[in-house]
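User: Predict structure, ligand cobalt (II) ion.
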Amino acid sequence: MGALEALRAYVRETEEISAAAALAAWDQRTGMPEKGAEARAKVLGRLERLAFERLVSDRMAELLRAAEGEAEGEIDRALVRVWKRNHTRHRAIPPELYQKFVEATARAEHVWEKAKAASDFSLFRPHLAEVLDLVREIARLIGYRESPYDALVEEYEPGMTTARLGEVLGTLRRELTAFLQELRQGTPPAPLPPGRYPVDAQKRFCRDALTWIGYDFSAGRLDDSVHPFTIGVGPGDVRVTNRYREEDPFSSLFGALHEGGHALYGQGVAPELAWTGLSGGASFGIHESQSRFWENQIGRSLPFWRHAHPHLVRHFPALARTSPEDVWRHVNRVEPSFIRVEADEVTYNLHICLRFELEVELVEGRLSADGLPERWKGAMGEYLGVVPPDDARGVLQDVHWSGGMFGYFPSYALGNLYAAQFASAAEREIPGLWARVARGEFLPIREWLRERVHRHGQVYLPEELCRRVTGEGLSPEPFLRYVRRKYGEVYGL
Ligand code: CO
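Assistant: Predicted complex:
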């Protein structure tokens, strides 16, 4: 057997173990009975450990070394690149340190929940400090050129650096804070009157929406969970979940479009990438671009509501007196608020800019856990003009830091930027794009995304993929143009 063939066989077995873990994880978060929790945690831990041990094994090191010289085609080169990167990163961390990290983050997450419920940062502070020390040690072992944060962000956005993020997010922050001021001169759209929207009708509406955008129900399913998510169980099986709030039919719809966007990516990967480990997204940012594309670029557009409005009214007769324009305005209101996950398109990225800046300061050692709540409040006031009255609605709102996931937050903003870049490329390349959306013809868009983005899985690095799709690398400009145009119109500027 050739070296590449041997690597492929070893990777395939590893991927099969990960697929079993994914199925167990999906069940854990959807239908698993409560009493099964303890045993399931053990089984999941075992499967994940098996896959991890194979990733960092001497055998993997050998296979990668041997295959490196043989890899010629695009896919084989990506196969070696992706596995080598993961292997090297994880092997840099000694097992004892990794164990310490797993235990510290488990404790920190548990305490974070309590601290958030009590809105008391002081409970969480020592745990955050401990996690932060371990994260900085891990960054040091992985290695970096300029900032230890580089080593962390690489996990989520390969090829990205702290300096580049600083430029892009800095532009975004300056332009968006200025635009927020402009919006204050405009007329805020009137919200729709409150009502009750039966969950069953919401579920039917979400199924409709997933069907419109071309989600393949014979290669996936839609279930309920506390937090919506998408999970690839294996080739031909990419599942989504959603949640429903009786007082609001839009949050479940946008949840469905968001997860549907992630799932179309998974369903659209070329079959030859199955079991290679290349069938995930090019990066977390690119993955998020696919969800934001359908949720915001399409789902919050006026043409979308010209198509969707009659269906909305059919499912929710209480909205019969509204027009497509009313609904479009309703779902495009801008209001600075404390909570990231509830933020609108204009203010959302400011929540990310804030987290990015604080994370870099923490990881570079220029800010300590002690100083975090004050720094948070100061930045909120500066960027959004609102200061959270307590820790629960401030520094304690997100789970990420308790899990040691420093470097993850920028992916959300990058997703918004890539989504706008892809949408403006789609406008150029798909004739009559918005007229088609208004007629409910979404499949040409899915096909375009499939051809340009989905098919390639992780074969290209995010920056290269972005260039191939749009002709240029990551840029905040298309997003800023999009936001100014749409919200200028909604607010009558
Ligand atoms: Co997402």
